[in-house]
Amino acid sequence: MPLLEVDGLKTHFFGKGGVTKAVDGVSFTLDRGEILGIVGESGSGKSVTSLSIMRLVDHPGRVVGGTMRFEGRDLLTLNREEMRQLRGRRMSMIFQEPGTSMNPVLTVGFQIGEAIRSHERVPAEEVRRRTIELMDMVGIPDAKQRLRQYPHQFSGGMLQRLMIAMGLALSPSLLIADEPVTALDVTIQAQILDLLKQLRDTTDAAVLLITHDMGVVAETCDRVVVMYLGAIVEEAPVTELFDNPKHPYTQGLLGSIPSIEEKVDWLQAIPGTIPNPTDIPSGCRFSNRCPKVMDVCHKIDPALLTVGEEHRVACHLYEEQESRDG
Amino acid sequence: MLRYIIKRILIGIPILFLVITTVFFAFRLIPGDAARILAGDEAPIERVEQIRTELGLDRPVLVQYGAYLAGIARGDLGVSFSSRRPVAVEIGTRFGNTFSLALAAIGLATLVGIVLGVISALFRGKLADHVVTVIALLGISVPVFWLGLLMMQLFSVELGWLPAAGHGTWRHFIMPTITLSVFSIAFITRMTRSSLLETIAQDYVRTARAKGVRERLVLLLHSLRNALLPVTIVVGLRFGYMVGGAVITEEVFAWPGLGRLLILAVGQRDIPLVQGLLLVFATSFVVVNLLVDVLYAFLDPRIRHR
Fold first, then answer.
1. What backbone phi and psi angles, to 5 degrees, belong to A303?
2. Hey, are the CB atoms on A104 and B300 less than 8 Å from each other?
3. CATH number 1.10.3720.10 given to B95-257
4. Residue B224 DSSP code
5. Alpha carbon of A82: minimum distance to chain B alpha carbons (Å)
6. pLDDT per position as a tens digit, A141-184
7. Which of A57, A93, A103, A168 is the best residue to mutate to test the B interface, defined by the most B CB atoms within 10 Å of its own CB?
8. With an 8 Å Cβ cutoff, are A115 and B211 in contact?
9. Largest CB tally within 10 Å, which of A94, A143, B122, B281?
10. Chain A residues inside the 8 Å CB shell of B300
11. Helix, strand or coil for residue A283?
12. DSSP class of residue A317?
């Protein structure tokens, strides 16, 4: 049984100007010890997907459909207290902006220890000892002294390490990382991604890595889900996706990355911009930007088709192929 | 931290000097002759001139200014024209009355303002929020003297529960305290509301929830504590204002404080007393601000470490 099983998740926002279907029928699974990337542009629904799993979607957003099973429990049936007990203990989350994600007026030691104290009754001395251990584990030098310092006394990279320490305080089985390196320098990015991989290997936690950066995906993930306007358009193991992208959107995303092997004068970009999620095109949601658009694309929303081992794609181009193959 | 405090004190000195100078010269520009008022309308011009000489008002303005500054440097605020007692004594005997009233009013305003503000923010857009907003709007718009008179009419005249005016027991405190705090209650309520709403939307509050912190602590420790930082500044400013600005409230309730004294002093062109009072008001304001700054630095490590 997979660690996390998301099936047909729908999270909609009920604003004054109408309903925004930020996540509209997303299904995927995640195994223990696996790093799954969710890629997409801003507005694709990848962050809302992760917040939905944590049940932290803010008003006026609401999960309106689907199921989410985590460690065998249906998350949507849990009450507030049961959900609180899961957060930080079995599943935790780190965020894009380490600088604003920690409380500026509390010491970092207090904030890491708080993750422990919120779930276990342990003496202060033990909390302190474990906090120092965690800070050592994520590579903060002088943990004993630095735990008394405040967030503004740390660099962005160090803060993200502290956030990871906080997230892993109680060895959760799932760590959701929402754009964990987007706000960091490239050299620091590599360090943090290495740390995530290393922690996955030592703790066997699964990581759900939300990013818009294909480079981060290639470096870190085992498997990738590509999202566009609230739905999954393609899903594949990471090498398969990079070697053999099927969806015109994925092809566009990969085509916009410069290659060091061949010289190109002009980088390919996907034409147009991502439509407003209140106004999703009928038929295929990518139809108005797709270079290979066909008549059927404007009428019928394509279902996810299996096109290879663990490779699924939602595109009408591959329908014949599937019926021929099987 | 100590350097920060010393720096703040040093900034206060030129401010006070500026206040002293401005008040001194401004008072020479307004019409009204202290010697004539003291002598009375019927007094002969010789008597007026004699009083003028006694008070030292016949000397050139710059000489008077120099003498005044020299006096302040020695801690001497001069002698009241009307009572002939030292200004420091006149102010000293009433300062406690004004200070205790201001303390009671700011205490009430802080307590009620924060509670109402929190309610308003937590129930944003709901009935409770609208009710609090209307109360705050009334509190900001209602004239202080009118509210005081209205309460007097109800609680003293009609119901006979509270003394209408004067000073002495805790019962005398009730109506002046409410009157003086109403504006501040409204102000602190709105400030707390907006600050809390802003804080609740912060990333670190979401982080706290994401690590499973209990909702009560998310609100008290991560949201309210941070939201109250800017509120402390407003509380300090309002308190500084109350120490010097309770003029109307004190007049309405015949409260023997500095505000009433100021009205008397201005009416009699009692220049040394007015100057002394304004100096005390300005000093209170500067001191309160200093205390607030120190408190703020104590509460917010980002300022402490700068």
1. -85, 165
2. yes
3. yes
4. I
5. 10
6. 999 999 999 999 999 889 999 999 999 899 899 999 999 988 88
7. A103
8. yes
9. A94
10. 104-105
11. coil
12. G
- Kindly give the confidence (pLDDT) of every residue in chain B, 306 residues in length, as a single tens digit, with 9 standing for 90 and above: 778 788 888 888 888 889 889 888 887 777 777 777 777 778 888 888 888 888 788 888 888 888 888 888 888 888 888 888 998 999 999 999 999 999 999 999 999 999 999 999 999 989 999 999 999 999 999 888 898 889 888 888 888 788 877 777 888 888 899 999 999 999 999 999 999 999 999 999 999 999 999 999 999 999 999 999 999 999 998 998 888 768 888 888 888 889 999 998 888 888 889 889 988 998 888 888 888 888 888 888 888 776
* B105 in Cβ contact with B242 (< 8 Å): yes
Chain-chain contact of A95 with B209 (C-beta, under 8 angstroms): no
Instruction: Assign 3-state DSSP to chain B and report helix, strand, coil percentages, each to 5.
Output: 80, 0, 20
- Please count the other Cβ atoms lying within 10 Å of the Cβ belonging to residue A24: 22
Pick from B30, B24, B34: nearest CA to B67? B24
Residues of A in contact with B213 (CB under 8 A): 88, 114, 118
Q: Is A93 helix (H, G, I), strand (E, B) or coil?
A: strand
Hey, where are the domains in chain B?
1-82+268-306, 95-257
Whole-model pTM: value is 0.82
**Closest residue to B209, CB basis, from A56, A152, A169:** A56
Q: For residues A129 and A63, what is the distance between their CA atoms, to the nearest angstrom?
A: 39
Structural domains of chain A, ranges and CATH numbers in brackets: 4-90+172-259+266-325 (3.40.50.300)
Residue located via tokens 């329908």: A319
Does the distance separating the beta carbons of A166 and B211 come in below 8 Å? yes
Distance CA A55, CA A76 (A): 8
Which of B122, B123, B199, B211 is the best substitution to test chain A (most A C-beta atoms within 10 A)?
B211
